[in-house]
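ping. complex inputs:
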Amino acid sequence: MTAVLILIAVATLCTAAVAMALRNLIHSALLLIASWTGIAAFYLWAGAEFVAFAQVLIYVGAISMVVLFAVLLTRQSRADVAIAPGSLGRVVLALIAGGAVLGVLVGAVLSTKFANSSATTPTVTVKQIGQSLGGAHAAALLVIGVLLTVALLGAVVLATTDRAEKEDA
Amino acid sequence: MGLSVQFLWLIPALPLLAAGIGSIAPSRDRTLASGTAIAALALSFLLSCGALLTALANPADHATHNFAWFELGHGAVRLGWLLDPLTALMCIMVTFVGLLIFIFSTGYLRADARFKQFFCFLSLFAAAMLGLLIANSLLLLFICWELVGLASYLLIGFWFHKPAAAAAAKKAFITTRIGDLGLLLGMVWLYDSTGSLLFYDGGNGVLEPSVLAALGGSTAIGLLIFCGAVGKSGQFPLHVWLPDAMEGPTPVSALIHAATMVAAGVFLMARVFPLLTPDALTVIALTGAITALMGALIAVAQNDIKRILAFSTVSQLGYMMLAIGVGSWTTAIFHLLTHACFKALLFLGAGSVIHAAHHEQDIRQLGGLRGPMKTTFATFAIGMMALSGVPFIFSGFWSKEAILHAAHAWDVSQLPLYLGLAAVVLTAFYMTRLMAEVFFGAARSDAAGHAQENPPTMTVPLGLLAVCAVGLGFLGTPYWPWLQHTLDPLAHVEAGGYGLMMVSIVLVALGLGSGWAIYGRKSRVKSSAADPLAVRAPSVFAFLAARMKFDELYAATFGRLNHGLAVFADALDRHLWDGAVRFFSRLGEFAGVVNRETDEGALNGGFDATSEGLRKRAHSYSRAQTGDAHGYLLMVAFGFVVLVFAVLLGGAR
Amino acid sequence: MKSESIPLVFSFPFPLLSLLIFTPWAGAVLLTLLRGASALTARVLTLAFSLSTLAFSVLLLDSFDPAATAPQFGERQPWIAALNVHYHLGLDGLSLVLVLLTGIITPVALLASWRLERSARLFGALFLTLQGAALGVFLALDFFHWFVFWELSLVPAFFLIKLWGGRDATRAAYQFVIYTIGGSAFMLFGFAALFATTGTFDFNELARLGADGTLAAKLGAGPIQFIFLGVLFGLAVKVPLWPFHTWLPPAYAEAPTGASMFLTGVMSKMGVYGFLRILWPIFPQQLHAAAPWLLTLALGGVVLGAWAALRQTDLKRMVAYSSVNHLSYCLLALFAVSYATGRAGLSGEAATAALSGTILQMFNHGLSAAALFACVGILQTRADKNNMGGTPMPRGTGVSPLGLKDFGGVRAAAPIFAGLCGIAMFSSLGLPGLNGFVGEFLIFRGVFGLHPGAAAVACLGLLGTALFLLTFWQRVFHGPRAEAAAGEFSDLRGVEYAALVPLVLLMFVLGVAPQLLTRLINPLVTAWAGHLVLP
Amino acid sequence: MNLAPLQLCLLFSSALFCIGLIGALSRSNTILVLLGIELMLNAANLNFIAFWRYGANSEPATGVMFVIFAIAVAAAEAAVGLALVITIYRHQKNIRLQDATRLKG
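pong. complex structure:
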C-alpha cells in the first residue's frame, strides 16, 4: 500500500518539478497533465473515486486544454523565452522562499502527533455525494454555480475583441 | 324547383369559385375573368330564386342546416345555413343587383389595366355578402361581415396609387372595425350567456323562445350588436367613412356602398330582432332618425355627385334603422329592397354620367346632359323620383310611407316621426337640386359638353333597375302587404292613416317645388357661381358643406387621443422601462459616482490639511504596490513562514 | 406498406423524441466538420436537416392519440441518479403543436435567409443548434435538462444576432442575452429551492405536489411566494410580458430575417409554453393570487404594445411590437383562467375556449409574424440593392434603418409580393377566414366569460393592431412610388416564393379548418379546464 | 523512520505545494505562474483527501465535498486567469508578468 503511495508521489512530484523547470511551455503543460493524472491516481488510491474522476475530467480534460490554447494564442518569438536578465536572482530567491516553506511544513508534519486514524477506509458513494450536494451543501452548490457563470461571462468579456479599441489603435 | 337548405352554400360558393379562378387567371384574359364572375352570379341568382320557392312553401318555418366547425371542450363550435323568406329575398336582391352592376362594370372599367382584379374582388365581395345572408350563426355572420369589410377595403382602395383612395380605404376599414369590436363583444357575451350562437337550432337557438326566456332580455347585448350595424351601415356617429368610400370606382359605390353591404347592418338588426329589448329599440330608433335627418341635411350642401348620393344613402339607412327601432323590421327590409334598386340605379346613372364626362364629378361643372344622354336622364329621373317618394307609382313612396306609418304607431315617442318627415322634404329638395344641376341648363365645362351616351352594357342595366325601382313598391302597399306577411306572418301592417299619407305627399311636393324654384327655374350659368343657398345663408351652408365638421371633430379628439396614446406607449418603453433596465445595469457605477462625490465634497469641506497628510501617507503606502506579482507572492510565502514560527514560538498549546 | 411500417417504427423504446431533438444537432455537427463545403451545399444540408423535424412530426401525427391527455412517446432514463435527475421526454397535444410549429418555421426561416452572404456553414450550424434546443424545451419533462435546453437556445441566438445582424446588432445581442439570462437566473434559484424541498425536478411530480397544496405546505407561504416570483420573472422576460419586453424590439429588429422569424415564431413560444407547463400547474394558488396584477400587465401589453407599434418608423421594430401585442393575448387568456379558478359556478366552457385560444394563438402568431418578418426582409433586400446599384449588400455596414417613409407604391411594382404580404398582414390582424381569427375569437370568448372587463379593454388592442398594420400597408404599398422602392423593384423570385407561399397556404387552411389543430389539443385542454380547483 | 500513511500524504502534499510555489516565484511567464498556483491548489486538495481518509471521526463526505468545490473554483480561476493572460498579451504583446504593472499604485 505505502509503496504504491510513494510511487505515485515520486512520479507526481518529479513531473511537476520538471514541468516548472522546462523552457518549452508546451512541454511543461504536457508534463503538468501527467502530474495531475498522478494526483488523480492518488485520489483513487485513497478511495475517493468520484474526486479522482472529477480531477481527470476537469484538470486533465478541461483546464489543460485551456492552458494549451492560451499557450498557443500567446506564442512569442524565441527571444522572449530566454531567461530575462536578472532572473537568476529571482530563482535563488524563489528557492529560498520555497525551501523555507517546505522546511516549516515538513517540520510541522513530523512534529505533530496525529490521533490514531481509523483502520477502515471510509466509503462514500456517489449517491451520498449527490445527497449532500443537494441537501446539506445545496447553498454551496448554488454559489459555485453562480461563480462559474460569472467566471464564464467574465472570461468571455475579457477575451472578446473590443471593436472600438481596435479602431482606436 | 326549390333549393333545399342543405345546398344553400352553393349560392355563395359559386362567386367564391369565380374569385378563385379570377385570382389565378392570366391578367390579359379579360373575358375569362368577367365572364366567370357574371356567369357565377347569374347561377347564384337562379339558385336564389329556387331558394325563394322553397322558402315560400312554408314562410313561417326556419329551415336550418347546422354542422360542427371544430371541437371545443365537450361540444363544438357550430355553424349553419338558414333558409327563410328574409334570406331568400335578400339573396335575390343581392344577386340581381350585383349581376346588373357586374355587367355595367364591364363597360365602366373597359380601359382599366387591373380589370381582372376588379372582378376578382367583386366576386369575393358577392360571395362574402351572400354568405352573410345565409348564415344561421352569429359567428358565421360575423366572419362574412368582416370579409365584406375586406372586400370593401380592397375595392375602395382599388386605385391605390391615389393617396386619397388609399386613405379612404383605411378610414373605412378602421371606422367599421370600431363598430365590429362592439359586435364581437356582443357576440361573446351572447355566447357566454346562452352557450350557442346559432340563430335557430331546433329550440336551442338564440332567437328561439326558450333561450330568449332564459336570457331574460339583455339591453347591453342588443346595443353591442347594434354597434356593429352602426359601423357597417354608416349610422351616426360612425357615418364618416361612407362619403369617403366614394373614392372607389362607381360600380363599387353602387354595389357595396349603396345597395348591399351598407344594408347588411339593417339586415343584421332584422335578423336578431327577437333579441332586442324595448330600451335597445328606443336607442336604435333615435339613432336612425338622427342619421336620416343629418344625412339629408348634409346632402343639401354637397357638390360632388357621388357624395350627394352617399349622404342620401346615409339618410335612407337611417330610415331603415328607424323602422327597426319602432318595431317594424319588415318595413325596414321592404325599404332596404326598394332602396337597393333605386339607389343602385342612381349610382349607376351617376357612373354613366361620370364615365361620359371623363370623370368629372362636380355638379357645378356638369349641366345640360338631358339632351345627349337621354336614356341615362330618363332612368336617373325615375330613380330620383323613387328616392324622393313621388306618390303612388314609385317604390320609394310605398316603403317610406310604411316606415312613417310604423313610426306614427310607435307608442314611445313621436320624435322619430317628425325627424323622418323633415328628412322627406330635404330628400326631395336635394334630389331636385341634383337633377337640375346635372341635366338641365347648359353644359358648363368641355367634359360635359362632349358627353355622349354610353354603350348598351351600361344602359341596359339602368333600364332593368328602373323597372324594378317602379315595380318593387307594389309588393308591400298597405292594401296588399304581401312582402311584410311573407317575411313575418304575424306582422301587423298599419293600414289606413290617410291623413299621414296626405301630409307626406304635401311635404314631397314642397321639397320638389322649392328645389325647382331655387335651382331649376333659373339654372346655373357659370361653374364658379355661388350656390343660391350659400348666398342666403352662408354660414349654415358652409357648415353643411363641411359635413358638419365631423371629420375635424374626430381628428381633434380621437385622432389626438390616438396619437397621444402612441406617443405615451412609445415613451413609456423608451424612457421608463428601458430606463429602469439601464438604471439597474448602472447601479454599481452610480454607487461609485456617489462615493466619489461624497469624498470630494468632504475634501472640499475643509479637511484639506488632513487630506494632504493622508495623501502623503497614502502615497508612501502605495509605493509598496510595486505591481510585481512575484514580489507579492514572495511576501506571502515569507509571511507564512514567519507566522508558523510565531505560532510555534508563542507556544500556542 | 404503411400499416407494416408503423409497428416497426414504434417498437418501444424507440427514441423518436430524442431523434427529433438530436437530428438537427447532428446536422450542426456535420456542418462544422464539413470544412470545404460550398455555400450551396451547406444551405441545402441545413435545409434538409431542418426538415427532419417536419418528417418526424408526420410520424408522430400518425400515431399520436389525441384522446390521451398524458404525455406520450415517453422516454425516461435515470441520468444523474444522485440528483434524482432523469432524462425524461414526453409529448402531449401542446408540445405537438409547438413541435409542428418549429418544424414549419425553421425551414421557412432558412429559406428566407437563403441569400445571406457570409459563411453559410456557420449560419446553418447555429440555426440547427437553435432548432434542436427549442425542440428540447418543448419536449423535456424534467426541469434539469429543460433548463439546459432553455439556456442553450440563447447561445446560437446570440451569435446569429451579433454576427449577421444590423448596425446595432452587438448591443442588441448583449442586451438580449443578459436580460434573458438574468431572468432565468431567478428561475434557477427558484427551482433549486424547490428541489431542496421536494427532491425532484420532474414537472409532473411537481405539478402534482403543487396541485394538492403539499408544496405550499412544505415551503411555507413566504418562500413559495418568492420562488413563484422568481420563476415568473424568468418566464415573463422570455415571452415577453409587458413591461419586461424592452429587449425584444432591438433584438428582433437587428437580427437577420431568418433569425427574426425564428425568434418570433418559435422562441417567444417557449416562454408561453413555460407559463402553461410550469408556472400554472406548479403554482396554481400563487398565480391565482397574482392574477389581477398580471391581467393588468397583459392588458398593458395588448393595448400599449399595439400603440407603440403605431409609433415605430422602423418596419422590423413595428412587427416586433406586434409580437408583444399578440403574445399578450395568450397570457391574458391564461391569467383570466387562473383569475377565475375556484369561482363558484364556473363553467369549464369559457376556460376551455380561453386555453384553446391560447394554444391556437401561439401557432397562428408563429405563422403570421414569421411571414411578416419575411416580407420586411424582402423589402429590405430590395432597398439595399437599389441603394447599392445592384450589388447585394452585406449587413452591418451602415445601411440606414428601414423607415415607413422610404417606401411607397410597392404594390404597383410587385403585385404578387403585395398580395402575399397583405394576406400575412390580415392574418395578423385577425381577419376571419385566415388563421388569426379563430384563436383571437376563442380567447375573447373565454376571457369574456372569465373576466368581462379585461375582454372589453383588450378589444382596444384589436383596434390598435388594425390601425398600425393598415398604416404600414398604406404607406409601403399604396400611393406613389417612393425613393427606396424606386428603380428596379422586382417581384418575388424562386426562394422567396418558397419561404412565403407555405406560410400563406397554411394561413388559409387553418383559417377555414381549425379542426386540424384543435383536434390535437381539445381533449388535453378539456381535461385542464375540468380540473380548475385551488388546493 | 516509521511514518504513518497520513504523514506520508502530508509530506507529499507539502512537497507539491513547494514545487508550485517555487515555480510560481521563479518563472516570468504568466501562464507558468498560473500553473504553479494550480499546483498549490492541488496540494491543498491532497490534504483534504488525506484527512478525510485517515482523519479521526470526520463527517463521511465533507472532505470529498471540499475537494469538489475547490476543483470547481480552480476551474473558474483557470478560465478567468487565462483570459486575463490573453488580454495582457493583446495589450503588451508579451506575457511577462513583470511587465504587467500598469495597475500599481
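Chain B touches chain C through 49 residues (CB under 8 Å).
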